[in-house]
What does this fold into?
Amino acid sequence: DIQMTQSPSTLSASVGDRVTITCRASQSISSWLAWYQQKPGKAPKVLIYKASTLESGVPSRFSGSGSGTEFTLTISSLQPDDFTTYYCQQYNSYPWTFGQGTKVEIK
Amino acid sequence: EVQLVESGGGLVQPGGSLRLSCAASGFTFSSYNMIWVRQAPGKGLECISYISSDSSAIYYADSLKGRFTISRDNAKNSLYLQMNSLRDEDTAVYYCARCGSYAYFRHWGQGTPVTVSS
It folds into this structure.
């Protein structure tokens, strides 16, 4: 199975900050990576797919980059609604696997 | 509008069984592969089972060790997960999700909680 490792596990930031979350795959997954946002008690919502393609309706302050084994999700200017948990997911090969999550909290 | 609505969760004793259902609407269910994802309390997301549109391909997570069975009824626009020999570690919220052309998940249900406890 491909292991996905996110860092950091928790990130403290303020409104307006630029933040970056990293996701590393245990083997190359080309660009087959998605990023999700999950709020408490809700299903995940896809933000980015194919490593860098912004899902329709997602604010442009979210961006993704990377290929192979290292990927990043960047939020250019944190908004109050963005303080929640983010997951990466590889879909290069089954079993599709998620990172352990990064919680973005208010500093 | 795509809608996925899970049901069937609840409290069950260790060793017991539950059958989860996922009712789909707003799209041609028989054309899409589907998946079950679970999330234990305070934990991350785990893809536990996949079924292709025509049920010809089925996969399970190794962690299930043959205890769960995924199925679908395209005539009823429904996805199922039969869960047997339940263990404490199966306690989680169970989501159904629709696969697109690629296996990332744009559409999810609201989740149904399963608690395994004596």
The mean pLDDT of chain B is 96. Residues 23 and 78 of chain B are 5 Å apart (CA to CA). The radius of gyration of chain B is 13 Å.
